[in-house]
Model the fold of this input.
Amino acid sequence: MNFLRFAARRLLEMAATLLGASFVVYGAMYLAPGSPASFLLSGRSASPAALQAINQQYHLDDPFLVRYLRWLGQVVRGDFGRSITYRTDVSTVLADRLPATLLLVAMALVIVLAAGLVLGWIGAVRGGATDSTILVTTTLAIGTPSFVAAVLLQGVFAVGLGWFPSSGAGEGLGDMLWHLTLPAIALALYLIGMLARVTRSAMLEALDGDHVTVARSRGVPERQVIGRHVFRNSLGTVLTTSGLIVSTLLVCTILVESAFSIGGIGQLLELSTTTKDFPTVQAVSLIIVALFMVVNLVVDLLHPLVDPRVTLGSRRNDA
Done:
């Protein structure tokens, strides 16, 4: 029952937050200079009648609140409007672009979790020169922006060695995995360093705990001490960081998709912002906000499972 009440309360909070975000997302584009009509006219002069027809078609001459409520009602029904740039439904454009972005984020997340956890584990357990080497490596990774990593990987492994494609998302699952390998690594590099450091710090803190000393004094094998008493007690911190990692991946994918011309929603958002494609920008922004909130909800629901000291609705440092 506590789980259901907590989930219901969080869903209500998400709905309220999403409503507020929708108002900000819808209104923000109208604060920028320019208008969709100017893009549609492509710099050509137009008669007042032609300009009025464009404004009526896209409801640009209606009061702001009327436009927002009309758009919100359409969004609730799953209708994000019609793209000004592509002259088709935004939902159709998103359906074509979203799979590549989701696959890219999923691949990058797998790479981050695998490499970050392993490096953090090794650094905390081995110590010495191994730990120092990992610290230097992760520092370099953290200091390398995603777009810089994208350019370097593209120049070496795509253009120089020819091992991977230099652009595009591919067609079919196998081809997409091949095309998105370099972009996923570029997207994951910075976050690997961050997760490795967080894992290392959490495990070092757990290694100093009394429960570890007691387990060792009882003759528990070191492998079990590390796995059950150290790493498991570090998972709460790692899980919280993983939520931040997913959110960061969703944001940074814009840069990587542009570098590799992947054609996902990140590149779509960049292009739509440039061309004042209001319906597309609003839809993509709202989807990203919704994904952020879903990630945070999943982290909150999983936290008590990996760390029994945390209860639903509480934070670890409040316990």
